[in-house]
């Protein structure tokens, strides 16, 4: 689905007057390796100061492997446009993001995991359906070039918000707070990162999606509309997912 079909009044400006190309160029691997220089500097500082560089090295290595692999996976998904494969991909994303959300929770069990799955499935899934069917009007609804990137943003942000909400809720309950006080504190804390992002966007930062579209030659006006949509759905899906989890956790908190 061409971008301009969604915003028929928008136009791409003439970038020839600017010293840049209309479309992003492929980065050669030798040039890409230069981006590791500041990373190695940070790892060197970690090693020199605290000998705690192992986790950073693991994170960098894992990031490189995951991104290189997902590039091939996405190429396959975008070419296949198979509803069953794409649906399976969405299910895997929900299951994995729910599992990662449990990392900071001491009480790891099947019930906690189920609560996290239901939270991300409801908050993230309904928001994704709203975007696909009513905002972007994707045809078909599982159009992978749009659905997969949007789902990754929605589920990952819901995952981060849930991690903060669950961890803070557990801390507050263990401190002796009642359920309602713990719930309110955890909810407000969990929304701090996404709220800060909304304050900073456009003034302090240009988010990844908007930056990527501009670099690929899309009009900044169109990119701004997409980013408004993204910020709204991320805030909404994350907040709804956290609220569902905290509500489902009421019986367990009262039991304590």
Task: Describe the SSE topology.
Layout: H1 3-6, H2 29-32, H3 36-50, H4 54-80, H5 83-101, H6 110-135, H7 144-174, H8 179-190, H9 192-200, H10 208-215, H11 220-248, H12 250-255
Helix pairs in contact: 5-6, 5-7, 6-7, 6-11, 7-8, 7-11, 8-11, 9-11, 10-11
Q: Into which percent range does the helicity of residues fall?
A: over 70%
Number of strands: 0
Number of helical regions: 12
Strand content: under 5%
Report the average pLDDT across residues: 82
Low-confidence stretches: 1-23
Report the principal-axis shape: globular
The biggest beta sheet is recorded as: none
Roughly how many Å is the radius of gyration?
21 Å
Class computed from helices, strands and strand pairing:
mainly alpha
Distinctive features:
disordered N terminus; mainly alpha; 256 residues
Describe the structure.
The chain has 256 residues and is mainly alpha-helical. Helix content is 74%, strand content 0%. It contains twelve helices and no strands.
Q: Summed up, what is this model?
A:
With 256 residues, this protein is mainly alpha-helical.
């Amino acid at each position: 689905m061409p971008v301009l079909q969604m915003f028929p009044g928008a136009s791409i400006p003439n970038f020839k007057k600017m010293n840049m190309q209309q479309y992003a160029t492929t980065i050669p691997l030798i040039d890409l390796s230069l981006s590791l220089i500041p990373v190695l500097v940070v790892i060197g500082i970690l090693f020199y100061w605290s000998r705690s560089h192992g986790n950073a090295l693991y994170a960098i290595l894992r990031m490189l492997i995951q991104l290189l692999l997902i590039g091939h996976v996405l190429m396959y998904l975008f070419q296949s446009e198979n509803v069953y494969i794409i649906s399976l991909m969405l299910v895997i994303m929900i299951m994995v993001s729910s599992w990662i959300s449990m990392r900071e929770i001491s009480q790891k069990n099947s019930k906690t995991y189920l609560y996290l799955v239901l939270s991300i499935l409801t908050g993230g899934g309904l928001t994704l359906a709203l975007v696909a069917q009513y905002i972007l009007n994707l045809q078909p609804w599982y159009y992978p070039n749009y659905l997969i990137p949007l789902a990754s943003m929605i589920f990952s942000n819901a995952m981060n918000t849930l991690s903060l909400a669950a961890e803070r809720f557990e801390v507050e309950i263990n401190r002796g707070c009642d359920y309602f006080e713990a719930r309110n504190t955890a909810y407000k804390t969990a929304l701090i990162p996404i709220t800060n992002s909304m304050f900073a966007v456009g003034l302090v930062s240009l988010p990844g999606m908007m930056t990527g579209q501009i670099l690929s030659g899309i009009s900044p006006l169109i990119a701004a509309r997409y980013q408004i949509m993204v910020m709204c759905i991320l805030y909404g899906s994350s907040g709804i997912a956290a609220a569902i989890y905290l509500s489902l956790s009421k019986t367990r908190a009262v039991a304590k």
